[in-house]
Amino acid sequence: MKILLTGVTGYIGKRLLPVLVDQGHQIVCSVRDERRFSPANSIRDKIEIIENDFTRSETLGNIPEDIEFAYYLIHSMSGATDFDALEKLSAVNFRDALAGTQVRQVIYLSGIVNSETLSKHLQSRKTVEDELKKGTYALTTLRAGIIIGSGSASFEIIRDLVEKLPVMIAPRWLNTRCQPIAIRDVIKILTLTLNNEATFHRSFDIAGKEILTYKEMLLEFAKVRGLKRYVGTVPVMTPQFSSYWLYFVTSTSYKLATALVDSMKVEVVARDQELVDLLGIEPLSYEEAIVKAFKKIEQNEIVSSWKDSTISGRLNYQISDFINVPTFGCFRDIRRRRIADLPACIERIWRIGGDNGWYFGDWLWRIRGFMDELTWGVGLRRGRTSVDRIQAGDTLDFWRVLYANKAEGRLLLFAEMKIPGEAWLEFRVDGNELVQTATFRPRGVGGRLYWAMVYPFHGYIFSGLLRKLTE
Known about the structure:
Elements lengths: L1 E4 L5 H12 L3 E6 L9 H4 L2 E5 L17 E4 L10 H16 L6 E7 L8 H13 L5 E7 L2 E2 L4 H12 L2 E5 L5 E2 L2 E2 H10 L9 E5 L5 E2 H11 L5 E5 L4 H11 L4 H11 L9 H6 L6 H13 L32 E8 L3 H9 L11 H13 L20 E2 L2 E7 L4 E6 L5 E10 L2 E10 L1 H27 L1
């Protein structure tokens, strides 16, 4: 079957793609920025890639007419005030674009919307469903609760809270009930509903076995990890203060924390388990989902992370806009050094950041990250998805990976910390030397003053880093 897969660079899409390929389907991957899409070599020649931006109808003319099925996994938890209008526009453009194709079924992954009062985020999900229903195809809507898996936003936030705080005095929304579901079950349901006529023109809630409060989820997580934790709630904590609390304690961005707090006040419980019964699935328990997630983490097999999305940073941009590093009007710090052991040097570069640190002056990197957090920036909180693998679109502390080619020996990073301008950091093997280039394009007088202020530290930090990478 020929399938259009949207959201393929996102948390769900990255995991669904190889499963669909393994099942023998012909996949057309719709991406907004092809440079951010790095499929595994084993499937690269089995898929077709097209660039589309569903907020711009003029980019949608390249969708093949002979697609038979489509997955709508386009989703935003952006802090933009008009994100709901953008989501509605994307749904309308998607629906209209598919009108000229042979598509029979669209599968849409949404959120559980059974509460009488919905957050702005969940209301937006419902609006998207209403728009998609107007299409000429059969719509299958899967409304999921909290998704638990290695790299998921919910899992990482719970992990941060439990592992960092022995005692938590938390907002009262921790008593809100929800029904978490394992990522493994979500992927299984997404594939089993494909071309399943019993699911056509219908919506289903999908969730795990247990109904838990967020507080119970934290305590169960602690139990699985063998940690003793105490959680108390306070009756009064404003949404803004709750967002601050979540931002400072966890690795989430401030705008995502704001959207999550708004949604966590709403009960997310499934109406029934009709679909899992229909498909013959036995969902994992919350405890089983946690155990499986940590097995993936321990084996360094995290396929995707919520941090891969650009909304975890300061900008929602296309990599293609920044991959060509400018020179005009820029300040540059270029350093070269002879490489003692080329394979070892490249391995060090590919393991830089995250838990491995920056090899030299780590305390200064941490200070810079802390300063960024004080201005609601990302700081070093995001780390990296994999210990030893890097691909375009990945996060690497307060950097975004623009280009990564291990065979070529080149890694290009773009800064997502809050600075008065734009910054790039590049590592490039040139013969038997490593060339390390820091580029800064200032914005106004403030940008020039910023460069003058930090430049004295570059001599210490960057020369030490270069030495550690090449010795």
